[in-house]
Design brief:
Strand 6 (141-142), helix 7 (152-162) and strand 7 (168-172) form a beta-alpha-beta unit. The protein has helices at residues 8-12, 41-50, 61-66, 68-76, 96-107, 124-131, 152-162, 178-194, and strands at 27-33, 56-59, 80-83, 114-115, 135-136, 141-142, 168-172, 198-200. Helix 7 (152-162) runs parallel beside helix 8. The chain has one domain: TIM Barrel (Alpha-Beta Barrel), CATH 3.20.20.370. The protein is 38% helix and 14% strand. It is of the alpha/beta class and 206 residues long. The protein binds zinc ion. Zinc ion (ZN) is lined by residues 33-34, 84, 88, 118.
C-alpha cells in the first residue's frame, strides 16, 4: 500500500525534523524536489505565476550548476529554495563525511538553511550533523507524482480527502513527472482553494 499521508505517530518519532506547520493559518505549502529541470521547471514557474502561488523548491546542486538561469528565475519570482544535496545521494548509502560534503557543496549553489534529504532517508548521525546548520524539512503529504502505477485520479481523490491546513505537499520537477504534473497541479490547486486554504512558501530561521 502506498501511503500519501505520513501518519502522525510516525512524525513523532522524528521530532527534530519538520513534517508540517500549524493548521491555524489556513495555508498549505507546495514543495518541488530535484530541479531545476529544463523540461518541467519553466512550465511550473509559469503555472505558479499565473495562479499567484509561491512555493518552495528543494534543488539538487548539480542541476543548479547546469541550469543557473532557471534557478535564478525561481528566486526572481519570489519562491523559496532549499538544499537537496549536490548529487541526490541516499544518506544510508554513503558515509557521514561524504553526505555532509555533498550538502556543503550544494550550499555553494543554493543559499538556504532549509534541507530535505533525498528519498527522505538519512541516518541519525547525518540528521544530527546537519541540524547544526539546517532546518530539515520533510512533508506530511506525498503526491506520488513520480510513480506511474498510481493514477492521477487516485492522487486527486486522495488530495481531496486528506489535505489539511498546514500540510507540506511534495512534488518533483524532474523528467519522470513532466506530463503528470501538468494534469495534477491545476486540479490540486482547485481542491486546495475549495477547502478555503491559500499557498505559502517555507520561511524558517534556525
Ligand atoms: Zn529528491
Amino acid at each position: 500500500m502506498k501511503i500519501f499521508k505520513v501518519p502522525r505517530f510516525f512524525r513523532l518519532f522524528f521530532p527534530n525534523k519538520t513534517w508540517d506547520f500549524s493548521a491555524s493559518e489556513k495555508v498549505i505549502f507546495l514543495t518541488f524536489d530535484d530541479g531545476p529541470d529544463p523540461q518541467i521547471t519553466p512550465w511550473l514557474l509559469d503555472f505558479l505565476a499565473n495562479n499567484n502561488i509561491v512555493a518552495t523548491f528543494f534543488c539538487v546542486g548539480d542541476n543548479v550548476k547546469k541550469f543557473p538561469e532557471i534557478y535564478a528565475r525561481i528566486l526572481a519570482e519570489g519562491h523559496a529554495v532549499g538544499n537537496h544535496s549536490m548529487h541526490h545521494q541516499k544518506g544510508i548509502n554513503v558515509s557521514l563525511k561524504e553526505y555532509i560534503k555533498s550538502v556543503e557543496l550544494a550550499s555553494h549553489y543554493i543559499d538556504s538553511i532549509l534541507f530535505r534529504p533525498p528519498y527522505g532517508r538519512m541516518s541519525i548521525r547525518q540528521t544530527y550533523a546537519l541540524r547544526k546548520k539546517y532546518v530539515i524539512i520533510m512533508w506530511s503529504w506525498l503526491s506520488f507524482d513520480y510513480e506511474p502505477s498510481i493514477s492521477v485520479r487516485k492522487i486527486i481523490a486522495n488530495a481531496k480527502r486528506r489535505i489539511q491546513a498546514g500540510d507540506i505537499l511534495v512534488f518533483h520537477d524532474n523528467s519522470k513527472t513532466t506530463d503528470r504534473l501538468k494534469v495534477i497541479l491545476p486540479e490540486l490547486i482547485e481542491i486546495v482553494r475549495a477547502k478555503g486554504f491559500g499557498f505559502s512558501k517555507i520561511q524558517k530561521d534556525l
